[in-house]
Amino acid sequence: MAWVAAGSVMVSDWHRSPESREYFSKILHKKKRRKFGLLEAPVMPPHLKADIVRYKVFLSGKSGVGKTTLAARLAGLDMPNIHYETTGMETCAVFWPVKLRESGRILFFHFHLWDCGENATRRFDHMLPSCKEHADAILFLFSFTDRGSFEDLSSQMSRITEPSDRLVRLVVGTKFDLFMHTDVTERDITRFQEVLGVPVFRVGGDVSGGFGEIAPLLNALAENLWHQDCMHTSTSVPTVPSNSGHIGPEIIV
Amino acid sequence: MLQSQSVQLLCLTASSGVPLFSRGSTKQLPFSIIGSLNGVHMFGTGHDAALSCCETEQGGHVLWRVFHDSLMLIGVSSNANVSELHLRRLLENVWNCMVLVLGLDELANARNVERLKRELRSCYGLIDMLLERGVDDRDQGLMGDLTHCADCILLPQPDLIQDTLESFTRAAESSPNVALRLLCFQLLPGVIACVLCGPRPSLYQVENEQVCRFWSPLAENLRSCLDHAERSSLSPSVSLRRDVLALLLINRESRRSVTSLSTKATPHLSPARRWELLRLFYTFAVTRYFTSEESPSSECPTAELLHEEFSSGFTHLPVHCYLVTDECKCYAVQTPQHQLFLLTDLSVPTFTLRSVATHTLDAVTTATGF
């Protein structure tokens, strides 16, 4: 699937506009990111109603590339300061407000991030299928300090996904701050984007927990997921909206 | 108690002494010392002597423990505040956490050492958490790592939560006989529902359907429980005497415990210090007097029974004990069903400690039915 150019579906850099302040304040608590339990969601006052759309996102990548750290970074959780192999599977929730360009409508994207330790996937056959079950997007991770993890990307992408899967695929390069030790050059990245037609995002370094570093990635994820659903609904029979507590994108388009 | 700074944990294969991992202290022990620690234990085994613990004059400890004739854990502590009981519990907890993650079979019948080494890495996060216990404020008041009892809070109206928990576990097909997965759901920050279950239903299904279905109606209820638990794990119907600083109550049959810190200000003893004193007093009481809690297991004869002549000089088991320090007074009561460990203010006359303790025990058990 071709990817959507930044800003074509949603207002880019919306988190910088004064209009967005009230929405972003709902995902903050005492100037840090608010931690949401499974029973919680941002609640807006009635005149600023924003629907919540839910997506499952699987983080894939070699052991040690930084899947858990990326999840923590996106969700605003405390980042582990030393590397631990993830014991089994971990999920976390990220809420992200966006504004649709055409309708001006505001939505909260709820990304449900799934992260799984590599040993666990090897030991237990049910782990990988369970991560992929109902997934709407996969983030393929590599580390800028580990060339092997970059070279493994394309085989990894073909190994765990089928071309026919209805999935948003994005690539994220982690530990970009350690550019002194980088094993992957800009030329490698450009070539990779051209050949595979998948955008590459860079993260690492920002420990302040601000939105600056994560906004491009979360916005791209939101735009591509939204676009994917629009394409799907326009080519298939619309499904009857369910009333399961959230509004699916199908009924808004 | 900055344990992680002073406790080092080593894991080796029991038969060949191959090091599998080392955690804890930032400065690793040199390989030659690890070899000697293993060698001295092996020497004992060869002469039909079980080496379980040794102590230095400065209060440091080395503790050996072999599990299932397969793996050996060695705990090394240079900190006199880390008791032998503490270290022993630590080794047991680490072993149990390895069993939780990898399964007993994998550990007891390890065939490929290199593979085991790699797989043990997924336990490091949990092991380091056990080593760092007590460093973090959020652990305060939790004693399970030391007492091996489940830390509980007693809620004013537990029925609704109990019913919901039961329906939830039924829906997740939880049955202890097929414990393939442990699923933990963070309902609210600070509230986690855990289910042991088999291969079905999938995590996605439980998280997206059942969690909301069962727990959403209770969100407010859980929030008020959180507020309550922050203050005390006892229900509000229990009023403690003003001069009680802290208590630990254990139900010996159900292996459950509750703790409480008095909310009345005691400026000279911080909450952290009171929790620490409670742990130290518990250790003191169960290793010297209430030794029945420390029943010798086949694998590890308890060290107390080897060198503590005091209690073995009596034909009875003590049921009360007390200790007066320059910070507080401590009293412990043991009945067939309960153990109570109590810290009081220095102002309480020593001769009344006994009645303060027995009244507190009565008051708490009568009001809560714990």
Automatic annotation (TrEMBL), chain A:
Q: Which Pfam families match?
A: Ras (PF00071)
User: Main localization of the protein?
Assistant: cytoplasm
Write out the GO biological process terms: cell projection organization; exocytosis; protein transport
What are the alphabetically sorted keywords of the record? Cell projection, Cilium, Cilium biogenesis/degradation, Cytoplasm, Cytoskeleton, Exocytosis, GTP-binding, Nucleotide-binding, Protein transport, Transport
* Domain of life per record: Eukaryota
SUPFAM superfamilies per UniProt: P-loop containing nucleoside triphosphate hydrolases (SSF52540)
What PROSITE patterns would the database entry show?
RAB (PS51419)
Provide the GO MF annotations for this entry. GTP binding; GTPase activity
Q: Report the InterPro entries cross-referenced here.
A: P-loop_NTPase (IPR027417), RSG1 (IPR039677), Small_GTPase (IPR001806)
Q: Where in or outside the cell is it found?
A: Cytoplasm, Cytoskeleton, Cilium basal body
Q: Which Gene3D superfamilies match?
A: P-loop containing nucleotide triphosphate hydrolases (3.40.50.300)
Q: Into which family does the record put it?
A: Belongs to the small GTPase superfamily. Rab family.
Protein name as catalogued: Ciliogenesis and planar polarity effector 2
Q: Which organism is it from?
A: Hemibagrus wyckioides
UniProtKB/TrEMBL annotation, chain B:
Q: Which residues form the FUZ/MON1/HPS1 third Longin domain?
A: 244-365
Q: Name one GO biological process term.
A: vesicle-mediated transport
Q: Which residues form the FUZ/MON1/HPS1 first Longin domain?
A: 8-130
Origin species = Hemibagrus wyckioides
The molecule here is called Protein fuzzy homolog
Q: In which domain of life is the source organism classified?
A: Eukaryota
Q: Entry's InterPro entries?
A: FUZ/MON1/HPS1_longin_1, FUZ/MON1/HPS1_longin_3, Fuzzy
* Pfam entry (one): Fuz_longin_1
